[in-house]
Structure formats: structure tokens, C-alpha cells
């Protein structure tokens, strides 16, 4: 449980760092800060006592972040703005710099790790406290 929370907190720190690095682009910086703000309360809740709802939210947020970061990585135009009249090669404009791509792949790997650990935490919680068989199911004469 704490390993899942630690990975989520590492993701929060990574997004805060990326927000600082993208401070010249306010919308990207704001998006990174928003991602950190959404993830932080769930990470703290999981660290303290692994609430099932918080683990589910971490799992969902991690997968959403993987999709968002993959989309940002694969967008054919640089998210840094237009580059009209520059002498930058077309390949660099389309894919971004290698360090940017490596950082995005690192964040995707980190978020996949958070999702995996959250899934493992949910599975472990289910194993410890299996649902009671037949709970809520009405059988026999009372079933109408």
C-alpha cells in the first residue's frame, strides 16, 4: 500500500517539476499543477490507510495520465507553440527534442507503475476481505 502511495507521490513531484520547467507556457504549467493537485490527496489517503476509493481514483488517474502523456508525445506538432519561419528541421518540430521525449516516456512509465501498484493494492485488498458469497442475492421463495 505504501509503495503505491510512494509511487503516486513521486508522480506528484515529477508533475510539480514539469510545471516549473514549463513556466514559460502558462497553460502547460497550469495543467501540470492541476494534475499534481488532483493526485496528491489520493496519494496521502493511500499512504495513511489505503482507502478503497482513493486506490480506485489513483488507478483511474494514472491511466488517464498515461493516455494524456502518450497523446502529448505523439502529437505531430510541437505543443510549445508555432514555429513559423524558423530553421528547425521538420523532424525536430514534429517530435520535439530527444530529452523531452525521454522525459515523457519516463512519466508514462512512472504512471504505468502507479496504475500497476494500485491494481495490485486493490487485488490484495480483495484477497484479504473477499465479498461474502450470496450477499444481497435473494433466492428461493422470497425471490420475486
What's the topology here?
Elements: H1 2-21, H2 26-49, H3 52-74, H4 90-95, H5 98-128
Which radius of gyration do the C-alpha atoms yield? Answer: 21 Å
Percent of residues in beta strands = under 5%
Strand-and-helix sequence, N→C? HHHHH
- Cα separation of the termini: 42 Å
Overall strand count: 0
Tally of DSSP helical segments: 5
Q: What is the domain total for the residues?
A: 1
Low-confidence stretches: 81-95, 135-139
Q: What is the overall pLDDT average? A: 78
- State the helicity in percent bands: over 70%
- Shape, principal axes of CA atoms: elongated
Structural class, judged by helices and strands?
A: mainly alpha
Oligomer: single chain
Structure overview:
By secondary structure, the protein is an all-alpha fold. It has one domain. Helices cover 72% and strands 0% of the residues. It contains 5 helices and no strands. The radius of gyration is 21 Å and the shape is elongated. 20% of the residues are buried. Mean pLDDT is 78; it is low at 81-95 and 135-139.
Amino acid at each position: 500500500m505504501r509503495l503505491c502511495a510512494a509511487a503516486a507521490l513521486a508522480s506528484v513531484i515529477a508533475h510539480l517539476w514539469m510545471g516549473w520547467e514549463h513556466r514559460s507556457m502558462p497553460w502547460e504549467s497550469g495543467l501540470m499543477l492541476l494534475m499534481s493537485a488532483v493526485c496528491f490527496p489520493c496519494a496521502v489517503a493511500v499512504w495513511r490507510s489505503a482507502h478503497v476509493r482513493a486506490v480506485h481514483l489513483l488507478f483511474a488517474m494514472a491511466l488517464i495520465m498515461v493516455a494524456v502523456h502518450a497523446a502529448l508525445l505523439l502529437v505531430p506538432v510541437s505543443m510549445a507553440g508555432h514555429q513559423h519561419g524558423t530553421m528547425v528541421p521538420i523532424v525536430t518540430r514534429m517530435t520535439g527534442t530527444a530529452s523531452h521525449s525521454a522525459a515523457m516516456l519516463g512519466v508514462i512509465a512512472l504512471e504505468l507503475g502507479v496504475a500497476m501498484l494500485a491494481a495490485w493494492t486493490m487485488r490484495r485488498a480483495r484477497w484479504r476481505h473477499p465479498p461474502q458469497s450470496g450477499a444481497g442475492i435473494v433466492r428461493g421463495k422470497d425471490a420475486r
